[in-house]
Specification:
The structure is a homodimer.
Chain A lengths: L4 E8 L3 E7 L6 E6 L3 H12 L3 E9 L28 H9 L3 E5 H12 L8 E6 L3 E7 L2 E2 L33 H5 L1 H8 L11 H21 L4 E4 L8 H13 L6 H4 L6 E2 L7 H10 L2
Parallel strand pairs in A: 1-4, 4-5, 6-9, 9-10
Antiparallel strand pairs in A: 1-2, 2-3, 6-7, 7-8
């Protein structure tokens, strides 16, 4: 594979980097490395791609990332609290190390691109990809292109109703307290119930509350973006019992107002897991490279 | 004007229809009629345009409207409670009456198109137009095109935090109670304070509360759409004292998380009134016609 003309991809996470070479889901070869300092991490990346003749490299990165092509810090990680990574020129460093053109977007935007190309959003021009794990993030496509603007979206930080009498947990977001991420991310679940989400049984009250919060977020995105489908990935949604709960909450919250068959009669194909499983991000980065 | 090759436009509201002919803001001639039954209203429309050689007609309509080009009810008003208008083929009736091609979108989407063409969003590919009046609605552009999808957005119906100890008013939305529209539309202000918004003095506590709710909505849209500018029109925002209050709330709510100069240092040119005043809608319909 490495001797052929192929694409490279990097899912750049705060904990690990997943690198891959290939042309699509059927031939992708990957490896992952822990995220260390920027120079050590880029060295691991360069080692993985050594000898590959890459037409281009796609990066789906943790953020915030400067994605303004006019900016002199385009492709930089910006205000992350992660030691050493603040104002690091990730796209530039990877491009120099690999000698290939680089295309970069956020991890969730890349995942959306991957799901559009090979996954659960094939043929759709308007949809939402959401991930619920260590954080909550969303990538949207509208009119067939990823939604950007002033910066990239930060969907996890929307504010939703928080009924303190049902859920006295104040929320864990250092910026906003009880924004959606502060209430419904994996760490919020752990802080509220005293155990990691994956250790809570399927009938634990945590899941009804989680579904309520995610349902409120989805309702806001339905009202704002009118997506044709919503794909939910991430570690917390490995809990498959969440999907029916979230669909029911979304229907209850919208209460029949948005007149669309998908919402009124076919919620099972409206709110779905990723078609690419846990490879949405890395395949999305590949899709960016080969766009 | 009516003898020339010009465009026609219709701002189709639940209370009145504004019709116009022209080519842009400098030569637009308008007239308005009360919204009666569909046949009587279309007759008034036909009378206004009589003799005009229209290249095309744009309609910015109250909703919900079926905007799916694949649908056999494309251009119909759908589930409105407004007597006689439910399932009325507005685009078809206007096209037949005027013998001209029709382009239709929602009133707020049309207003967004108008602001992009001639108003406060010139040169911007990603922005939000919001109206706060009898209802609350938003039209967004992303990547230079209006955001649609499953249906059109219904931004007024997002859910936001509602602190019942500060504001015991339960909200007036028949579908959702205390969604944003239920808490912050003109009728909600009147129901809460016992007087129409326009009769409340500029130092009335109504405005701080209104700014809080609209600020929460804007924060959610900043996190979701990352607009490069937010334009707020509609009757309630004729109260100019709301703009500084809303800008301050938006800054407080985002709390520095979204690192963008516009939000951190230049909120005055980020949250602005319409460049076209109260003509965003009708000029937007004209922009649809001549797109």
């Amino acid at each position: 594979m490495k001797g052929m003309d192929v694409y490279g991809c990097i899912e750049a996470g705060g904990t690990k980097f997943v690198c891959g070479v290939g042309t699509g889901p059927d031939d992708l070869e990957t490896a992952s490395f822990p995220t260390l300092s920027p120079p050590a991490t880029v060295e691991s990346v360069a080692g993985f791609f050594k000898g590959a003749r890459l037409k281009a490299v796609g990066i789906g990165s943790f953020g915030p990332v400067d994605l303004d092509p006019q900016s002199h810090t385009f492709g930089y990680i910006t205000s992350t609290p992660k030691a050493g990574w603040r104002q690091f020129d990730l796209a530039g460093a990877v491009g120099r190390a690999l000698g290939a053109p680089v295309r970069i977007d956020t991890d969730v935007n890349a995942a959306a691109v991957g799901e559009a190309r090979w996954g659960a959003a094939r043929g759709l021009f308007d949809f939402l990809y959401l991930t619920v794990g260590t954080g909550i993030g969303g990538g949207a496509m509208a009119n067939g292109a990823v939604v950007h603007g002033l910066t990239h979206p930060e969907m996890g930080h929307i504010r939703i109703p928080h009924d303190l009498s049902r859920d006295p947990y104040p929320g864990g977001c250092p910026y906003h307290g009880d924004c959606l991420e502060g209430l419904a991310s994996g760490p919020a679940i752990e802080a509220r119930w005293g155990k990691p989400a994956r250790e809570l049984p399927a009938d634990h009250p945590a899941w009804a509350l989680e579904a309520r919060y995610i349902g409120l977020g989805l309702a806001n995105w339905v009202c704002t973006l009118s997506p044709r489908r919503i794909i939910i990935g991430g570690g917390v949604f490995q809990q498959a019992q969440l999907f029916p709960l979230v669909r029911a909450e979304l229907g209850r919250i919208l209460n029949g107002y948005v007149q669309a068959r998908a919402l009124l009669e076919d919620m099972e194909s409206y709110v779905v897991p990723p078609g690419l499983g846990n490879r949405s991000g890395v395949l999305g980065a590949l899709a960016l490279a080969s766009a």
